[in-house]
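USER: Fancy drafting a protein?

ASSISTANT:
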Amino acid sequence: MRIVVTGGTGGIGFAIAEHFAKQQHQVVIADLQQQAIDAKVQQLTDQGLNASGMVLDVTCAESIAACAQQFPADVLINNAGIQHVSRLEDFPPEKWQQLISVMLTGPAMLSRAMLPGMRERNFGRIINVGSIHALVASPFKSAYVAAKHGLLGFSKVVALENADINFTINTICPAYVRTPLVEQQISAQAKEHNLTEQQVIEQIMLAPMPQKAFIGVDEIAATAAFLCSDGARHMTAQTLVLDGGWTAR
């Protein structure tokens, strides 16, 4: 199968790409920076794995069309993401719109572009990388929380519209994963809350999680692979939560 991973050079995206490549699938690492893409593709091809890359801006219609034409996906992983931490009244409107464009409109438009090919082949899997914040909220993250909540409703509609073919769409929702994006959040949250970075980790990030641990990128990759397995062929419109017990409270 051909697996297209947006945000494919990042911690979660590359872990997913590498996991599928090791299962002998063709992976396409799609991201914004050519140099980073080339480095990650080289890292996989050096292992004898089947990997390609392309520059993709999920907020650009022309870029999305080019991706769908060059690399029609059997499996689309909507993983690209950004973050901005601020009180709503201090949140720059253009930044708010950017987060929605990258994490909600982008996945919708890329899915839209890939769906005709999936329907023609009578096979498709779309996996959205959501967040615990698709289910709960935290202060200072209004745009991120809104986008991730929106992914769940979006997925339900697309599942219903394509229930007549061998197609599923699901959303993986991890609690905090120790990626560069989260490292930036730790610093930003420390500033907002007037705490040390260690206090942010202990008192904010891991406090709601009974297991008190960051989620591993390997867990997310393995969950994505399961969703593409025959054993998950009727699992669609679902939210798979990797949260160490957070939402059990």
User: Anything to note?
Assistant: The two ends are 39 Å apart (CA to CA). The chain has a mean pLDDT of 96.
